[in-house]
Structures are given as structure tokens and as C-alpha cells.
Amino acid sequence: MTLLSRENRRQIGLWAASLVSVGLFGASALAENNIVHDAEYYILEAQHGDVWAKEDQTIEARLAEFRERNNGKPPNILYVLVDDLSFGEMGIPEMNYVRGSQTPRINDFADEGLSLMRMYTEPSCTPSRAAMMTGRHPVRNGLGEVKATVAGESLAGKEVTIAEVLSEAGYNTVHIGKWHLGDIEEGYPHNQGFDYASFPIHQQVLLGFMTPESDHSQAMQGWLPGSSNDPYALDATFKPDGLVYSLEARRGELAREVDFEAGERWTQAHYDAMHEKYQRETLAHLQDLTAKDEPFFLQYWPLIPLEFDRTRFETFETANGGTGVESLRQLDTWFGDIVDEVDRLGIADNTLIVLMADNGRFRQFDTILGFSGTMYRGGKVDTTEGALRVNAFARWPGMIAEDTLAGDMIHIADLFTTFARIGGGLNHVPTDRVIDGLDQSALLLEGDGHGRRDYVFVYSTDTLSAVVKQKFKLELPPPGAPGVAAAVYDVYRDPREENPLTPIAL
């Protein structure tokens, strides 16, 4: 991408947005922007293209009217991505009641906008985040598995992220919290389109497990020096120690380590302080970005509710009492504080807020965390609906109808193209590669029945493992097994995928 100064990007971006607002980049341009999608999309477009073109004209008119009311600017976008929460864990009070959990602020938020009832993600954290950031299935960029170790790899610099697209369209961009898209400089958020980023290199295995508290509780056994004895151990580098944990960085600069001294032992207290810092920073940047004369893209990816240490809770607020459920209650309060701040700053009508989870829970920890089975079977790293289906909510007063549901299929990669469209940045989406994310602006702004997807491809690392098409789901047999071993499920009648429509013949 051409490197431009912040002021040049702002002027060009706002100029392009103004062209959209007067119709020069209208619906015809949307059909001619040469974004390349997969073959399945073109099958749908051939059947519905004329209807979609008319729908695009309506959407462009609504967006143009919004920009006119908003001094020629597109909306702010606030994107909150929660880690490891299965469908039903937030935003549905009846589910709170029967599970002994509490998410009252998220429940209220759901009532203030649109609940996307069929949001699909990738099977685990890194792939979902890569899909959202690039609009591409991670099989295309080498990030198809969850990165749980110090691997020396990352999101490639040649990938074009939604932060880069919106930055080119005139947005200020900030990332706060979990990143999980690599542990080398090339992939850090400030090198992937964000003006400022505050983030840990690692995810919760290193941050939440590798503490004295986890070792003492036997959640992580034998990692802490002195907690185990192996007289035959030869490799002194086998157990990672002396890691860099928390970084801050600005675009064009080197990242710097913060909040941790060389030789210091990482503890639960550091982890707790990290959560609190990211919440404070989100509120502070929300205020700073609002004071500027440009639209902003603020991305907050908290690390909780994946929490294992019971000693950090002085009291338990929920009937459930699991560490994850208690931590989710804290996150619910924090999210409510963020929404309150948006309202207090007077930018609610000018801000699209999207809240969702990145994938289903890591079911191995259900007993500790207090979570329990859902209507969907399986969890993180599976290819069942329990891994892929999550709650997702969108609020944009005056643009998205309140207290509505949509059953249309949507994938996390669709947010890339949808945010680009809403932000006036479609012309910055690359056309030299396949973009799996579809523009779902009509679904957000027109509601149920206006989606443009009825299929999802599900990959396990580099292997196509399942295909969802309408209400049917094909679970492919493992490599080497015959095709007749594939199972087909009706996910409406059999949401737990336990009774295949086709007999499995091995």
C-alpha cells in the first residue's frame, strides 16, 4: 500500500467519503469495484444481483443521508471482540437465569440494536481474528491454527487489514487488548494499520496459566522453577521464562515493553492489572478520539472472561460462582461503562458498536470456569456449531432498528467488507486476492432477510472440515477416509449434530 502521511490519508479519505455521499461512488461502483469473492458467492449473485443492486442504492442513500447529517463523515466504529464464549453466554436474560450468570448490560445492549442469531466464526482465536482483520479465511494466509506458543510467526505484512482500509479512508485507528496474530514485529497491530496499539504478545495460556498462582493450584504443573524435580533434564531453555508480556506502540515506531521489569516474575496480579489497564485505555482513547475531527475505528479485544484463579475474587456475585462466569460479570460491567461513555460523549448516533465472541468455549475448562453445555455441541477447535456459532450484537441508533433479530447467516470475515462499505473505504479493499468476507451492510441496516450469505466453509488449520449451506451442514470425513463417511445434519432440527440425515458407511 502507498505510504501517506496521516493528514494526506485523512484528506483523501474524507474526500472519497464525500463523493460517496453525493452518489458518485453509488451502487454501480459497488458492482464494479472488482473485489474478488469465492465461486459460491457468484452463484448467489447470479440469482439475486438485480435485487441486491436496488438494495445497494437504498443503502447508499441511507449512508449518504447519514454523512450529510454528520458533517460529511462516515460513522465511528467501535468493535469489541470477547474471547471464548459460546452462544447463549451473553445477551439473553433467560439463559442467564437458568445458568446462574449475569450479563445485564449486554442484555440491555442487545435490546438497543440487532442480534445476529447466526454469526459464524472460525474454530479458534487466531483464525477468527485473522478472518475479521483481513476478510479472508486464514487458510489463505497461514494463520489457520490457534497460536498458543512463542512461534516466531505472524500475520504477514502483505495482508491488507480493515485498519489499513479504514485508515486510508480517513479514520483514526486504535487497538486495545488481546491481539493473538503473531509474536514478531511484522504482525504487530501498529504495523497492520493502527495508529496506536496497546497489547500483549501472548494469549491466556502464557498470561493466565504461567503464574505462581496457577502452579500452586496445579492448573499448570511443573513450570515454575522449584515446583518440580527432574534430575535428568538437560535443556535449560525448554520452559519459557523471561518473556515480554505487554507492549505499546505507535505507527511507524518500534514497540516498547511496558509495565514489567527485566527479571520480574509474572504473577496473577500482573494479569489482573493488564485487564484493568486495557479497560482504562479504551475509555481514555474513546475520549481522545471523540475530541478529534475525524471518524475513528476503536478495537477493544479484552482477555477476560478466561480466568482461572479464584483468589482474585473477594466475593462472588453470581449464583454460578465459576471463575469464568464471575469474570464475565466483570466484563459485562466494563462493557456497560464503555456504552455509557459513548452516550455521555454525545456520539451514540454517530457510532456503530459491534459486540461479539471470537469462537466457542474451550470446553476442557468448563468445570473451573462455571460454564456448561449449550444447545450446540462442542467448543473451541471443533468444527461443530458449538465452536462456530456465537452471539453478536450491533447498535447504531437511527440506522439499525432496535430490539430486532436476524436469522441470516453471517461470518466474522464479513465484518471486514461491511466495515469498509460503511466507512467509505471499499475502494481501498485489495482486488489482487480473494476476499471471503461479503458486504453485509444491508443485513445491518435493513434487518432480517437481507443477508447475502447462505454458506460457510469451515477449515481446521489447512483442511476443509465442514461446509454449511442453508440449514444443512456437511461434516467431511478425515483425510484418507472415503467420502461416504461424510455426515449431513439439519442444524435447525438437530442443532447438536447428533443424528445425521445420511447413514455413515465405513
Q: Give the overall shape.
A: globular
| Major β-sheet annotation | 10 strands, mixed
**DSSP E strands, number:** 17
Q: Going across the biggest sheet, name each strand in turn.
A: 7-6-5-4-8-1-9-11-2-12
CA gyration radius, whole angstroms? 22 Å
Structural class: alpha/beta
Beta content: 5-15%
Low-confidence residue ranges: 9-32
Helix content: 25-40%
- What is the tally of helical segments? 15
Termini separation comes to 51 Å
Mean pLDDT: 88
Verbal overview:
This protein has helices at residues 6-21, 27-31, 39-69, 93-99, 104-111, 125-134, 162-168, 204-209, 212-216, 268-290, 323-344, 366-369, 385-388, 414-422, 441-446, and strands at residues 76-82, 114-116, 119-120, 172-177, 196-200, 246-250, 256-257, 296-301, 351-357, 389-390, 392-395, 404-406, 410-411, 455-460, 463-469, 472-475, 487-490. With 506 residues, it is α/β, with parallel strands linked by helices. Strands 7-6-5-4-8-1-9-11-2-12 form a 10-stranded mixed β-sheet, sandwiched between helices. Strand 14 and strand 15 form a beta hairpin. Helix 1 packs across helix 3 (39-69). The protein is globular, with a radius of gyration of 22 Å. Mean pLDDT is 88; it is low at 9-32.
